[in-house]
Amino acid sequence: MNKTVLISGTSSGFGAATANYFAAKGWNVIATMRDTSKTESLDRSENIFVTKLDVQDRTSIDAAIAAGINRFGSIDVVVNNAGYGQFGVFETVSRETIQKQFDVNVFGAMDVTRAILPHFRAKRSGIIINISSGAGAIGFPMASIYSSSKFALEGWTEGIRYELASLGISAKIIEPGGALQTDFMNRVGGESAGLQLINDYVPFLEQIGKAYTRMRNAVDADAIERVVLSIYEAATDGTDRLRYFPTSDIQALLNARRNTSEEEYQAFTDKFFAAE
Question: Of these residues, 148, 150, 172, 230, which one is catalytic?
Fold first, then answer.
């Protein structure tokens, strides 16, 4: 019997590519999205079932899970992929905008997970794969809101991993750095548009703009493929591994974060984000 994966946020980017890859590998795919008319990026495959799921609407979460189980009989893996990035100087971002960032990136993933756990507990099996970011390990300038949401996602995932392991359920994290190459960055621009510009920050914005240009130029050409393969590996490798690092563009930052002293890490990142 084919296994089944439910993926949130499949209208574009990593989500659509992951849905297509799993389907090509013979999996049943419950491809969910807020607007089910946006399926242009999905392959026309009999084993891809499209249904509405808005992570900010718990009723739609329950309905999507029920519809997927009704269609395929069971769900084996959930990929919490839906999310976006709020960029901007912290002082310019309203509390309401910050709340929305956490509602989608953190509470949305929590609500999808909470909704699927009774099904996984009944089977004594299942895998939760949360799509984080290198920004979930490193506080990126101009992305303090996004980074803090991903830090929260990672801390929560690491905590529930212990709770769920005794039930045969795994919780895993994907930390891509190549999001700059997907539609994610287009949405970043949209979510950040209209923020107040405080002139005092202009020199900093010019400096950090150069740093982000360097980062964007370093993105792996096959970043999306690497992320998709990493998600598939997490779903199929049969291990209890927690974190997966698919792209190389921010590997130096991750290595500094996890393999050096605090003083060395701070010196490295200060230089990394400095203008050249």
Answer: 150
pLDDT digits (tens, 9 = 90+) for 93-118: 999 999 999 999 999 999 999 999 99
Token pair of 22, please? 């799993």
Residues 6+ apart with CB under 8 A from 55: 8, 9, 61, 82, 103, 104, 107, 108, 109, 111, 112
Place of tokens 């803090």: 148
In this structure, is residue 119 part of a structural domain? yes
Is 94 one of the annotated active-site residues of the chain? Answer: no
What's the CATH number where 19 sits?
Answer: 3.40.50.720
From residue 216, alpha-carbon distances to 86, 87, 223, 259 in Å are: 17, 15, 11, 24
Question: What is the number of domains present in the chain?
Answer: 1
Name the catalytic one among 8, 132, 144, 192: 132
Segments in the chain below pLDDT 50: 179-191
Residue 269 inside a domain? The answer is: no
pTM above 0.90, yes or no: yes
Name the active-site residue from 12, 21, 146, 232.
146
Q: For position 183, what pLDDT does the model report?
A: 45
